[in-house]
Design a protein that fits this description.
Largest sheet: 4 strands, parallel
Structural class: alpha/beta
Distance between the termini: 23 Å
Helix content: 40-55%
Bound molecules: iron/sulfur cluster
Strand content: 5-15%
Order of helices and strands: HEHEHEHEHHHHHEEHHHH
Radius of gyration: 21 Å
Shape: flat
Number of strands: 6
Length: about 290
């Protein structure tokens, strides 16, 4: 993302969603600190409260963390969310996460620092703080069932994206008919979180890879929602959930369900969407890279 895109996104939010707070996330926003700083300054000009999410991978030295958090705090950044999960621990030693928490607390204050998830610290401490912890080692140490519970229940893993494929063996998978009647109206139309991505897609919070249209035309999207004239796959998901999408793909494009079943409704949805992306041009299946890589 560049500064012009950030400006346009924040202006759209200011003009059309005046009560919004902006959560700056990535990727990893601290990989481009100048852009992050500029984003916070622009948001402040528009009067939009901000917080940033970081994986703390860049927190290699106390002075570096102090400097970065201090300039952002002075520029108007309101809060920091620090990720602490077995997934982040795969590449980031816990010592960096703890350093980020320590410095953020000192600069932003305890009410403005959030750790996701705080219990992740205890879960990871048994592996030591100096080295990353491969997920296989985490699962092996805790055992399949307890690890499945920690990841799927306690962490609240959604089955979309890669989760259903890579970690579906840690939960009981269900056949496609078990998803009859599951609706996505709430997630798509009433999501408390909307993603403004760098390609201008407006994406409902839990539905990666499903675009409602360009956030530059958010007022038109909101008009289409009220008249029910949504993109075809979005409309199916709102009206009939992922089972409805399955029926559409089966009847129109010969999709066949996975014989091993699905880890959850979003796993079914993503598997069908990946298939449909290969069959025809559905503009709501964006960004394209979401479908290009496993
Ligand atoms: S099933 Fe699909 S549309 Fe429904 S919440 Fe999951 S990803 Fe979003």
């Amino acid at each position: 993302m560049d500064v012009d895109t950030v400006y346009a996104a924040l202006q759209t939010i200011h003009d059309h969603i005046p009560t919004a707070q902006v959560h700056l996330t990535g990727g990893e926003p601290f990989l481009n600190l100048p852009l992050l700083l500029e984003s916070v300054k622009i948001a402040r000009q528009f009067g939009i409260p901000t917080r940033v999410e970081t994986n703390a991978g860049w927190c290699t030295h106390p002075g570096k963390v102090d400097d970065a958090f201090s300039i952002l705090h002075e520029a108007g950044l309101g809060a920091v969310l620090i990720s602490c999960t077995p997934f982040h621990a795969e590449t980031i030693p816990l010592t960096r996460t703890l350093l980020a928490i320590d410095k953020a607390l000192a600069i932003f204050g305890p009410h403005n620092v959030f750790v996701f998830l705080p219990e992740g610290i205890d879960q990871l401490l048994r592996f030591g703080t100096r080295s990353p912890v491969p997920l296989e080692r985490f699962i092996e140490t805790y055992g399949m069932d307890p690890a499945g519970f920690l990841l799927w229940e306690e962490f609240g893993l959604l089955s979309g994206g890669r989760a259903g494929y890579r970690l579906g063996h840690l939960v009981q998978r269900k056949p496609v008919d078990d998803f009859i009647g599951e609706s996505c109206t709430r997630e798509i139309l009433f999501s408390p979180c909307l993603l403004f991505d760098l390609y201008e897609n407006l994406i409902p919070g839990p539905c990666a890879g499903l675009s409602l249209g360009s956030w530059k035309h958010v007022h038109e999207i909101s008009g289409r929602i009220s008249t029910g004239s949504l993109p075809v796959l979005v409309k199916i998901l709102v009206d009939a959930g992922p089972y409805g999408l399955f029926c559409f793909a089966r009847d129109q494009y010969h999709y066949r369900p996975l014989p091993q079943g699905y880890a959850g409704k979003c796993h079914l949805c993503v598997d069908v969407r990946k298939y449909l992306k290969m069959q025809a041009d559905f503009p709501e299946l964006e960004p394209v890279d979401y479908y290009r890589y496993d």
